[in-house]
Amino acid sequence: MNSSSCVIYTRFYHHIHTVNIREHCLCWIQAGDKTLVKDQQRLDCQAGDLLIFMRDTQWDVINRPPTTHYYQALNLQFDRELLQQFHQLYRHQLPQPLLAQTTVIKKPLIALLTAMQRSHQLLNSQHSDLLKNHQLIEVLLLLAEQGFILPLGREKSWADKVRHLISQKPAYTWSIECLAQQLHTSPSTLRRRIAEHQQTLGELIRETRLEIALVLLQSSQQSIGDISAYCGYESHSRFSAAFKHRFGFLPSDLRADNTLSNFA
């Protein structure tokens, strides 16, 4: 199961450059403000708003905590397999048009937010995938009742498949031969497929590791050193430099003190 959830929290303002949205995602802003910027487009969200991120989009993301508290948001991500199941079961009963762009819902249904909270608890538990899928489909149905139906979208690309494998073991020394074996293809074919996305294997590995690190810095109590090692960086300084080059700020900018322990 590839659907996932996490709670993002920080007491520090930060501007994240070029966040890649890999799957459709709901973001319930619980405290603070969020701004999305792309070219001439700008979306402003406040506490209580529900933001629907569309897959395969890119945004600069600005998170602003309240003066005396943390920025906090519950993120719920849906994989394509779950959406396919949802469409097979209910699409013919839901005549509304499919959602076409990233959208802010200013007054989300209380039942929808409650279902998101239950989904988060289940996804981070030992319960069965069957039960987790059932709860996520409830979220999608409640979202549809408010007039928003997530499209199924394209099939997963070769780059998506490679990123998924890397994300399972981000510190592993991945080679084209190893990945090709996992994907049941030849190294030459996989190399060619990756090149079609204007990327190299090294770029895919670095991108995946840093995206994982960003989520862990915002949603876990792991130390920067532990996150650095988990994502395959032997040197703390190299990790910090790579992270700043990619996102525009240092990992320590999110961890200037030990206040994350308040969320244990």
Mind explaining what this structure looks like?
The chain is α+β, with helices and mostly antiparallel strands. The protein has two domains: 4-145, Sandwich (Jelly Rolls); 158-263, Homeodomain-like (Arc Repressor Mutant, subunit A). 41% of the residues lie in helices and 21% in strands. The chain is built from nine helices and nine strands. A five-stranded antiparallel β-sheet has the order 1-8-3-6-9. Helix 2 packs antiparallel against helix 3 and helix 4 crosses helix 7 (201-219). It starts with a strand and ends in a 17-residue tail after the last helix.
Question: Any descriptors?
Answer:
264 residues; alpha+beta; Jelly Rolls; Arc Repressor Mutant, subunit A; 2 domains; five-stranded antiparallel beta sheet; four-stranded antiparallel beta sheet; 9 helices; 41% helix; 21% strand; globular; disordered C terminus
Quick summary of this structure?
The protein is an alpha+beta fold and 264 residues long. It is 41% helix and 21% strand.
Walk me through the topology.
Blueprint: E1 4-10, E2 14-21, E3 25-31, E4 33-38, E5 41-45, E6 50-53, E7 57-64, E8 71-77, H1 80-90, E9 103-105, H2 110-123, H3 129-145, H4 158-168, H5 176-182, H6 187-195, H7 201-219, H8 224-230, H9 236-247
Antiparallel strand pairs: 1-8, 2-7, 3-6, 3-8, 4-5, 4-7, 6-9
Helix pairs in contact: 2-3, 4-7, 5-6
